[in-house]
Amino acid sequence: MRYTTWIVLLLALSAPLKFSQRVTPKPNLKAWWPASGAVILGGGGLQSEAADLFIDRLIALAGGPGALIVVIPTASDGLPAELPTSGPQSPRINTLRQHLESRGAQRIAFLHTRDRQVANSEAFVKILRSAQGVFFPGGRSRVLDETYHDTLVAHELQALLKRGGVVAGDSAGAITIGCFWLGWTSPTSDFGKITDGLCLLPQVTVSPHFQRMGNEWADVILKYVSAHPPTVAINIEENTALVLRGSAAEAIGRGGVSVFDPAQDKTKALLRLAAGERRDFAK
């Protein structure tokens, strides 16, 4: 029974691809929140009002309905290696487009590949240079790791934040915004890093679906981050999101968010935010 729930989620979120030599992110001793721009982290399972609120914040922080929002759906199951440039699209792409349009987005583009060399090409990332917002929907986090970690995509997303844009991710998409993801690769393995992220939030590990894990999961995360400074853990319940504009944070949706920062307190969460609550981490 040990870690059974975690292993089931891990298999769903981290099915591997066949390539990649990982580069372990170097610790960043600066503030862990975005220095400029905004980040939205979804805890997975976004439904109804919470899902609409997530997209509403994405559109608003990108600059409004006329802002260019680029969706990177690579974590989603059932997509081809490359999206067709014309003609019918997959149901997943249609659903994502319809949701964004229903909330007012007028300029939507999709960017997708499963080829790391393509992801690291100038032609692929060109559209990101004119985007005001980027959205990573959920799916399998290891696919995002294998495809986009340490590529020009990561570089351009850093540039987008520097010019005041917004990067949003739900579930696996939220994981990849952080520097790495924690967990077990099997019921008998040691707890530790299992995928890399884009490191848009320095030294941060993000855990979505948090209410499924129970107290034991919270304990092992806190133990890990306490032993590996300056790691900060952001833990987000389903149907919930954390909005970060610089050090200003707000929880939206239905559940809660907890932040473990042992530099502040090694024995408990630095903060728990319920939906609707706000906090400035710099104060």
Present the secondary structure layout:
Blueprint: H1 4-13, E1 38-42, H2 48-62, E2 68-71, H3 91-102, E3 107-110, H4 116-119, H5 122-125, E4 133-136, H6 141-148, H7 152-162, E5 166-170, H8 172-177, E6 180-183, E7 192-196, E8 204-207, H9 214-227, E9 232-236, E10 240-245, E11 248-253, E12 256-260, E13 271-274, E14 278-280
What strand line-up does the widest sheet have?
Answer: 3-2-4-5-1-10-11-14
Question: How does CATH name the architecture?
Answer: 3-Layer(aba) Sandwich
The proportion of residues in beta strands is 15-25%
Q: What is the element string, with H for helices and E for strands?
A: HEHEHEHHEHHEHEEEHEEEEEE
Domain module count = 1
Q: Could you state the CATH homologous superfamily?
A: Class I glutamine amidotransferase (GATase) domain
Helix/strand-derived class?
alpha/beta
Q: What value does the Rg take, in angstroms? A: 17 Å
**Could you name the ranges where pLDDT drops below 50 across 5 or more consecutive residues?**
1-8, 14-29
Tell me how many strands there are. 14
Q: What is the highest CATH level, the class?
A: Alpha Beta
The overall average pLDDT, rounded, is 88
- Helical proportion, percent range: 25-40%
Shape assignment: globular
Give the end-to-end Cα distance, rounded to a whole number of Å: 42 Å
CATH topology: Rossmann fold
| Annotation field: number of helices | 9
Largest sheet: 8 strands, mixed
